[in-house]
Amino acid sequence: MDKPVLDLAGVHAHYGEFHALRGVDLTLWRGEVIALIGPSGSGKSTLLRTANLLVTPTHGRISFEGREIVRENGAGRSEVLLRDHQLNEYRTRVGIVFQHFNLFPHLSVMENLVLAPTLVLGLDRDTATARAMELLKTVGLAEKADAMPGDLSGGQKQRVAIARSLAMEPEVMLLDEITSALDPETVGEVIRTMKLIAERHVAMLVATHEMDFAREVADRIVFMDEGRIVESGPPAQMLAEPQEPRTRLFLDRILRRATT
Amino acid sequence: MYEWNWQTIAEYLPFVARGIPMTLLVSFGAIAIGVILGVVIGLLRTMAWPAVQRALLWFVELFRNTPVLVQIVYFYYAVPLLLQTKIGPLQAGIVAIGLNTAAYISEIVRGGIVGVGRSQVDAARSLGLSKLDTMRKVILPQAARRMVAPTANMFVVVMKESALVSYIGVAEILHRGDVVQVQTFRPLEVYTMVAVLFLLLITGMTRLMAMVERRWTPVAE
What we know:
The complex is a heterodimer of chains A (260) and B (221).
Chain A: E1 4-15, E2 18-29, E3 33-37, H1 44-51, E4 59-64, E5 67-72, E6 78-80, H2 84-93, E7 94-97, H3 109-119, H4 125-138, H5 154-166, E8 172-176, H6 184-199, E9 203-207, H7 211-217, E10 220-225, E11 228-233, H8 235-240, H9 245-259
Parallel strand pairs in A: 3-9, 3-10, 7-8, 8-9
Antiparallel strand pairs in A: 1-2, 1-4, 4-5, 5-6, 10-11
Helix pairs in contact in A: 3-4, 3-5, 4-5, 5-6
Chain B: H1 6-17, H2 20-47, H3 50-64, H4 68-83, H5 89-116, H6 118-126, H7 131-161, H8 173-184, H9 187-215
Helix pairs in contact in B: 1-8, 1-9, 2-3, 2-5, 2-7, 3-5, 4-5, 5-7, 6-7, 7-9, 8-9
């Protein structure tokens, strides 16, 4: 964790009139795992989508590996400094996994994993297939290589989605509440997979309501509310003695729900 | 009481049935124009610059919101004056119905693409796929399956509309029926014959389309 890999400074984002991010400063270090917690609508998803530049910030700066990719112009508005192909390349290095999997339903599991490496990274099919097979083994789904997404359970789909993202060998993984749409009995298998990614020293920004994951795996917990970061710190401290009343209120609610 | 006369049918069926090739020519001519142009317009309406999209919306509205018969007459009588040329009734009919069909098919194509959903675009773009690759490899293969059923339905509509070209004298099934009716004054036999011929043609067509539809069903995640 010597160098910052992703650095956001004063980032604002809007959806039309809605002011979703209201000045976020966040540095993600190499290999660091950050658990992003907070109520629904607090801006966690928007923050992840902004980091991947699926959402373009209105104000603020973003750097990736020390290089500025979004800057502020004279009028204080954000400007993406990447051309189209550079933006595509950037996205291969900052992977995102979505709450609702977003697998390609017309392609087999294997094809889902091979598509982007062949098209974007320019790997030949055999190499891409071999790598995909390794990843499917890692997430425990080697025997599903030829299955169609529609035939998988929610947990299996999400593990495929994780493998698809890992196939690009990203430096950063953004996980957007990836267990929220799952049946309770399949949440465990996805969390185990998340831990495997953390062990690969891929930096992770994980929006989650899974406090056990946050406690066991995260290096830092960041609490967001109303488009801002309210508080952040190491899990032990954040969970045991949060400083801000809003953090305390949120944790009380979510931890009580988890134990009852 | 009107008495059914089999003799009329026996005598004139061959004459009326000789309109079948013309009906097929008008129908498939219009379908060909409609599919090719409709796909191009539908794609442009989701991807092109806003000004182009607006212009194409005008085209679609123009052809969807005026009667097909008016369009056919317009292409036969009015357009030749504008272009200072002659257009035969067959050409005018095929082009008019073809453009009308293109307007509808472009909406089927656009709807199919939009219906695939933002989340698939997000997934593809987040993996670094370019806009073009996203369209080619992710959106269109899924959208195509959604387009099959409404397009098949459109083909049936076109085959029925083809009878409208009888109005400008194209010798398809209905027009030949009209000719016989004027000579024989047997509307019941003549128009039953015409209706049954259309029924057979269009039922054959829907059977074929159903076979295609079974192979191309939409996939769910």
